[in-house]
UniProtKB/TrEMBL annotation:
Keywords: FAD, Flavoprotein. Residues 1-219 form the FAD-binding PCMH-type domain. It comes from the Bacteria. This is FAD-binding molybdopterin dehydrogenase. The lineage of its organism: Bacteria, Pseudomonadati, Pseudomonadota, Alphaproteobacteria, Hyphomicrobiales. The keyword Nucleotidyltransferase does not apply. The keyword Flavoprotein applies. It comes from Bradyrhizobium icense.
């Protein structure tokens, strides 16, 4: 690890001012410190934001408000989250080991870097680590890589589990920076790789995430998260699905569906959602709609299996929402 300075701040404005001069935020550090040890990331100056008043978890009516510094474990264990937003709680529990959940913040989890092994290998080309150097995964070991949203420059999947749940539930995020405060959908935080895969998110220089707001309602209580992985213990998703249904009088009135492990960002499946609306929730309807998730899929040499695993995972997640009713 290369030498760096660490500055502690006690106000949001001080944090923004520090970041505006080129410093990097650090909270739980569960991703950044690893990358600094491996010298994949080499920030010279860090700003410790752990003392900022951004860790509150509260329910406003049916809306869940999560401070950016709230720890994953605290959010998952919150009674209001478990009652009104079980999908969020499940995705957090599935997303990390207990030790990591105790340290990692919600904001940091959303901004974590990709887990492609080539990203951490200095002797392999990676456009995320070194722009215009190439992508070793395209012709290399790519069984865990994306089939949706890829480009000729990057095929890495986004690793966050809770991001998939938040995108499915139309969550928004509140950020503040030198230009003031703004709110936008969590889905808009994540960029497609295109020809600039090193640009992964849309925060402006100096902007700090303040909170995430998750709307509630019947569909949020009838929601489940399913993660398929190589082993039952802590591991990143091969395919995951966040599914929420609002069923009234035996008919699907609203559907929310996003998937992980297959896209270069959390992947919202609006075509599948639209195919479910107005239908009775049964396996045949789920299977027909789930096949639409493969539109635009570009499998690699090692991940053709995801073309079969993705719709199967979606079907099972949708079935689980009925079990939660």
């Amino acid at each position: 690890m290369l030498p760096f300075t660490l500055e502690k701040v006690t106000s949001v404005q001080a944090a923004i001012a520090a970041a505006s001069s080129g410093r990097r935020f650090i909270a739980g550090g569960t991703t950044l410190i690893d990358l600094m040890r491996e010298e994949v990331e080499q920030p010279a100056n860090l700003v410790d934001i752990n003392t900022l008043p951004l860790s509150e978890i509260r329910i406003e009516g049916s809306v869940l408000v999560i401070g950016a510094l709230a720890r994953m474990a605290d959010v998952a264990a919150h009674a209001g989250v478990q009652r009104l937003h079980p999908l969020v709680a499940e995705s957090l529990i599935e997303g990390a080991s207990p030790q990591l959940r105790n340290m990692a913040s919600i904001g940091g989890n959303l901004l974590q870097r990709v887990r492609c092994p080539y990203f951490r290998m200095h002797d392999a080309p990676c456009n995320k680590r070194t722009p215009n150097s190439g992508c070793a995964a395209i012709d290399g070991l790519n069984a865990g890589h994306a089939i949706l949203g890829t480009s000729n420059h990057c095929v890495a999947t986004h690793p966050s589990d809770v991001a998939v749940a938040l995108v499915a539930l139309d969550a928004t995020m509140q950020v503040r920076g030198p230009r003031g405060e703004r709110t936008f959908p969590v889905e808009e935080l994540f960029r497609l790789p295109g020809d600039t895969p090193h640009l992964e998110q849309t925060l402006l220089p100096g902007e700090l995430i303040l909170a995430v707001r998750v709307p509630g309602g019947p569909f949020s209580r009838r929601a489940r998260y399913l993660k398929v992985r190589d082993r039952a213990s802590y591991e990143f998703a091969l395919v995951s699905a966040a599914a929420a249904l609002d069923v009234e009088d035996g008919v699907i009135r609203r559907a929310r569906l996003a998937v992980g492990g297959v896209g270069t960002r959390p992947w919202r499946l609006r075509t599948v959602e639209n195919a479910l609306i107005g239908k009775a929730p049964d396996r045949k309807i789920f299977e027909t709609a789930a096949r639409l998730a493969l539109e635009g899929a570009r499998p690699l040499s090692g991940n053709h299996y995801k073309l079969e695993l993705l719709p199967r995972t979606i079907v099972r997640a949708l079935e689980m929402t009925g079990e939660a009713a």
